[in-house]
TrEMBL record:
It comes from Sporolactobacillus terrae. This is ABC transporter ATP-binding protein. Keywords: ATP-binding, Cell inner membrane, Cell membrane, Membrane, Nucleotide-binding, Translocase, Transport. The lineage of its organism: Bacteria, Bacillati, Bacillota, Bacilli, Bacillales. SUPFAM superfamilies: P-loop containing nucleoside triphosphate hydrolases. Residues 4-217 form the ABC transporter domain.
Amino acid sequence: MSLLEFSHVSFTRENRTIVNDLSLSIEAGDFLSIVGPSGSGKSTVLRLCCHLISPTEGTIHFHGQDLMRFNPMELRKQISYCFQMPYLFGDTVRNNLEYPFLLRNKPVDPDRLEELFAAFQMSTSNLEKEIQHLSGGEKQRIALMRSIVFQPEILLLDEVTSALDVANTQIVEKVIEALNQAGITILWITHNPEQSRKYANKILTIDTGEVRSLEAIR
Ligand SMILES: Nc1ncnc2c1ncn2[C@@H]1O[C@H](COP(=O)(O)OP(=O)(O)OP(=O)(O)O)[C@@H](O)[C@H]1O
């Protein structure tokens, strides 16, 4: 049984088909790059994966069960996402990063937060900063940290390095690679052809909402 299985999934809005008849199997441990021109439906595919939106046709199964039947809060713990425009509460970095603990009724683990700052080579002094005082690249890294405070089964990443300089892109790539090596399934959208091939074992190319190719490269 595949970890995540799309069967003939379509997503239509305002008489426009944004994803058309997508069938795809994602196995545990996969690192899937999703590539394609702007507006081809890549982000929509990730939104479908975590039930931010529902297919208008077809089915998505997670662990063999209909994804639409999962409790959304429970699903977010297993399938975590980080998008291009990081959504963070207009609050402090600390409150953003402590939120995943609150959600699980668990005490905040300061060691885990320190570990994350170390992995992203950022200072923990950022914890007391207001989100609005962070740069775009800092916000991106904090949003990514928040999505992996507790390791999900699947991590969905939408152009998470687009606001980063070369050095920080490398840091983030290494964190993502290590997560995949630790068994986390990664689906990521990137516009950078070199990046799309560097870590992935599969590359999905989509155009106008349809699969152009699914290539296994490792
Ligand atoms: N809920 C929606 N309602 C109406 N149109 C939508 C909706 N979601 C996406 N679209 C449209 O569908 C198309 C695909 O959007 P999507 O964000 O999935 O593309 P993308 O491949 O991720 O693009 P980019 O690379 O520019 O981020 C776009 O034209 C977008 O405007």
